[in-house]
Amino acid sequence: MTVRVVGVVVATLVATATLTSCSPQASSKNAAPSARPTLTALPDAQPAGADELRVLGTRPGRLGVTVLGTQASGDLDIATSHGSGTDLGTPRVGTLGDAGGRTLSYDTAPSRATQVTALSHNGRHRVWVETSSTTMDAFDWRVWSSDGSGRTLLGDSRRLTDSVARAVGETRPVIAGSTAYWAATDGRGSDVRQVVLGRDLDGRGEVRRLKDVELPASDGAHLLVLSSPRSQGRAGGGPAHVLSVDPETGSSDRVLTIPLDDGEQVNALAATSTHLSWVVAGDDGRSSLVVHDRATGDEQAVELHQPGLPTMSLQLTDTFAAWGNGSAPGDAGQYLLDLDDHDVWRLGDLPGFSVVHASDDTVAWAVEDERGDIEYRVARWVG
């Protein structure tokens, strides 16, 4: 099945949202013209085969191991712990490859029982989030950074925020330049608002606070965030704006505006230096994924047969977008959209565990083996 690329329509888009950061020099510019393309359904998406995937291996799921991502080499980013479910332990992050598992060396004591929920890495650093929460309505967090030896605490919700309500899209770290950013909430009672926090990877300097924005993403050099009616604390109505933030100066520019109909929200955002991708979800249970070419403004979109909740997974590289529904209801397929030929491929189907990980041209997803256990298939996308 082919997803049609639709040309842009000339239009003038005026930004109404602003970014509050630690820099007084924040600014905005006119967004590139864009248009919402016609959605294309994907019930008949075909499974990717040998012509598209070069299999790198299968990693069996292990008791006490949580898979958090993949590296370009095919190794999986993991966290190990003896705890499970509501019985948490003392986790340690590392990698799982053909030669087995390796964990980073750092002191884990003293530490309260936690689990690792998300991890990001660049060429040198890993940044991850630990929480003692096992519920969906509250989420305390600690954000750690490591260059392979020891670890540094970048932030603790008990010291930085008054709220432990879950952030839109979860608290997942991203790395832009030499700074780690993560989503959180702050405030009390009816005045709980979305914030994005950031700190240098080495833990130096103060924590940066970007108010009334959500869904942090990174293209490597810049932080991308969403300014929406929801993040601004408004009941609804109006467009959302993607803003690019310079980690060094804190200044911001508006990259594009996303038109939203009544009842729609942007629930996921991903970025590379060449593309942006987001998921628009409606209050009627319908959702769509859009990929935007940052050079041309061209967009391609796919109708998702799932509600597009903020807990879904969305990964973006320069060659493909990949997504899954997580544990939400609806289509449990794990998908890949080739950005060159615009075909949608179905990687697998795993109800309750529909997650895809990606890094460069490498993609990993969970499957169920013959015994009903979870294992991970890792492959290089060759298109």
Structure in a nutshell:
The protein contains one helix and 29 strands. It has 383 residues and is an all-beta fold.
Shape: globular
Q: pLDDT under 50 segments (min length 5)?
A: 1-39
In total, the number of strands is: 29
The average pLDDT value, as a whole number, equals: 85
Class by helix and strand content?
mainly beta
Strands of the biggest beta sheet: in what spatial order? 1-26-25-24-23
Taken as a percent bin, the fraction of beta residues is 35-45%
Please work out how many helical segments DSSP would assign.
1
Distance between the termini: 14 Å
Percent of residues in helices comes to under 10%
Radius of gyration (Å): 20 Å
Account of the protein in words:
- The protein has 383 residues and is mainly β.
- The longest helix has 4 residues.
- It starts with 45 loop residues before the first strand and ends with a strand.
Supply the key terms.
globular; five-stranded mixed beta sheet; single chain; mainly beta; 383 residues
Compile the SSE list and pairings.
Blueprint: E1 46-47, E2 53-60, E3 65-70, E4 76-80, E5 92-97, E6 100-103, E7 115-121, E8 126-131, E9 142-146, E10 152-156, H1 157-160, E11 174-176, E12 179-186, E13 193-200, E14 208-211, E15 214-218, E16 223-227, E17 240-245, E18 252-258, E19 264-271, E20 275-282, E21 287-293, E22 299-304, E23 313-316, E24 320-324, E25 333-338, E26 344-349, E27 356-359, E28 362-368, E29 374-381
Parallel strand pairs: 1-26
Antiparallel strand pairs: 2-29, 3-4, 4-5, 5-6, 7-8, 8-9, 9-10, 11-12, 12-13, 13-14, 15-16, 16-17, 17-18, 19-20, 20-21, 21-22, 23-24, 24-25, 25-26, 27-28, 28-29
